[in-house]
Amino acid sequence: MTKPILQVRGLSRSFPIGGGRDVQAVQDLNFEVPAGQTLALVGESGCGKTTTTKMILRLDSPTHGQVLVDGQDVHGLRGSGLRDYRAKVQAVFQDPFASLSPRMRVRDIVAEPLEVQGHHSRKEIDRRVHEVLDAVGLRHDQARNYPHEFSGGQRQRIAIASALVSRPELIVLDEPVSALDVSIRSQIMNLFKDLQEEFGVSYLLVAHDLATTRYLADQVAVMYLGRIVEYGPSEQVFNDPQHPYTKALFSAALPSHPSEPDTEIMLEGEIPSPLAPPSGCAFHPRCQLRLGEVCARDRPRPEWSDTGVMLACHRGFG
Amino acid sequence: MKDTFTETVLEVRGLTTTISGKRGEFTAVENVDLTLKRGETLGLVGESGSGKSLTGLSLLRLVPKPAARIAAGSVVLDGIDLMSLTEDQMRQVRGRKISMILQDPQTSLNPSFTVGSQIAEALALHTDTPRKSLRDKAIEMLRRVRVAAPEHRVDAYPHQMSGGMRQRAVGAVAISCAPDVIIADEPTTSLDVTVQAQYIRLLQELQRESGMGIIFITHDFGIVAKVCHRLAVMYAGQIVETGPVAQIFDQPLHPYTRALLSSVPKLHGQIGRLPSIEGTPPPLWDRPRGCKFSPRCPLADHRCRNEEPPTVDSPAPDGSEHWARCWKPEAI
Hints:
The structure holds 2 protein chains of 2 kinds.
Chain A: E1 4-16, E2 22-34, E3 38-42, H1 49-56, E4 64-69, E5 72-73, H2 79-88, E6 89-92, H3 106-115, H4 122-136, H5 152-164, E7 170-174, H6 182-199, E8 202-206, H7 210-216, E9 219-224, E10 227-233, H8 234-239, H9 244-251, H10 293-297, E11 303-304, E12 310-311
Parallel strand pairs in A: 3-8, 3-9, 6-7, 7-8
Antiparallel strand pairs in A: 1-2, 1-4, 4-5, 9-10, 10-12, 11-12
Helix pairs in contact in A: 3-4, 3-5, 4-5
Chain B: E1 8-21, E2 24-37, E3 41-45, H1 52-59, E4 68-77, E5 80-81, H2 87-93, E6 98-101, H3 105-108, H4 115-126, H5 134-144, H6 150-153, H7 163-175, E7 181-185, H8 193-210, E8 213-218, H9 221-227, E9 230-235, E10 238-244, H10 245-250, H11 255-263, H12 302-306, E11 311-313, E12 323-325
Parallel strand pairs in B: 3-8, 3-9, 6-7, 7-8
Antiparallel strand pairs in B: 1-2, 1-4, 4-5, 9-10, 10-12, 11-12
Helix pairs in contact in B: 4-5, 4-7, 5-7, 7-8
């Protein structure tokens, strides 16, 4: 295994909600992203995906635990270390209509990460901007235009160019194709793969569409109510999901052909509020494979299989 | 799905809706033909700007005025041409015989009224439910859309409910008067995967109980594969292909349908490079001549780029309608 770019260790975040109480948004997360690979965080709204990416992007601080990029704790960085981190870690967000400043030309949007570093000549910046515009499939003359002159797919290319220009090691992709049209999605997904091959960049992907995840990710971590319940190589997890929640989630994914058999596992109810998380295993009230009292009483401890899959379930590997 | 449906409940012919603005008047929905049978679900699939939502709104005569105008066509619901009705008569039809579920339950419920009072409003307007029993009826509707503890939820405000629950409540308003037809415009787009699955199952159960016809507007072929019996694909304001779902998935006639289907990532099988469609859909105010898809079509030639393509029939083995608007369907 190659050296990890990103390591997340025991990461937790709680928010005070008044009355001296806290709500646990994420708890004790452990995962890593190897260089040149893609890890996907999968789960439904409220599972803590966004809180996690915010802490990795240093937009929020953990209550416990560490985020290490190239072995350095990003929440302890100051001065030049912090500047280096900002060049190394970039992000592409869901909505290219909201994430690009409407008052800036494409050239300035794309160049901004270099401008803030403050030590590149104008000529160097223009060269790098042209280089990344080529990489994402935009023409050099389009650098003079404003975002509103572009379609959604092209705007996402601009956002990707801007994320690439500082030659990052890790890009956080937060629902990067879900706002795009079907015929455009595959263009952008192919682009992510090409760029990974060309520049060796790693991705941390957050996506709710499972087929998109399977297509882009080497590793998958499935989250439920702030914790990782299953984590391992993508093919392993998709072909042989172990956790009852992973099974139910994957079975609820829409079929790719009308003749596909309906094997859906219907879950009871909705995700409980993180304000009042269930005892023991947080999934037990909805679990179709519940063992009994143990599930309501004890939190399952993570176990590892020989194939490198982590599972947090009292049933163990089956 | 092998269900056969016989009785036509909604027949749309030549529906054309135009929009006027600073770019002048242009056609956003062009010459749309649709047939919906009782108990059937028809998927209306297209990308943003293809005209699918405006088609849905046109069926209810709810196009945004004065910008949009239904310029031509007939919409026959249970033997009545909705286009010939007065505005007052149309108001009687909406909700009672045909109703709509919108994408965002956040905005289709009024935040200042309880969910129960909004269901009761629909019932009071369109049925002769006695005032006294409106509340009980609202509770019953919430129970039918599987909202837990409906006696309590009836007094809840929309913000007190989860997204999935709110969308059920919207569904309760839509089905409260047992309409013949429901137009569902991307009703599950804002829902999580497992909640979406529950909601789709609910719609299917309600349809089985009441025999209503559903037009499901979506951009997601997964939804089509799961719930639709027949499918109509829209591109740049036109229906470019329509037919039984299984037939279209297996033997699409139109290059656009074929390209869309193959560009969707799959949950099973090989992970290769995804085929993609170059370029973007044209803006409706600047549609190309000839076949609207021709600038992006790998098969297009001079004729495709200049002449409106003909309708080509290729009926399914059971004789049901399957056609596409294309010069080169045989090349596929």
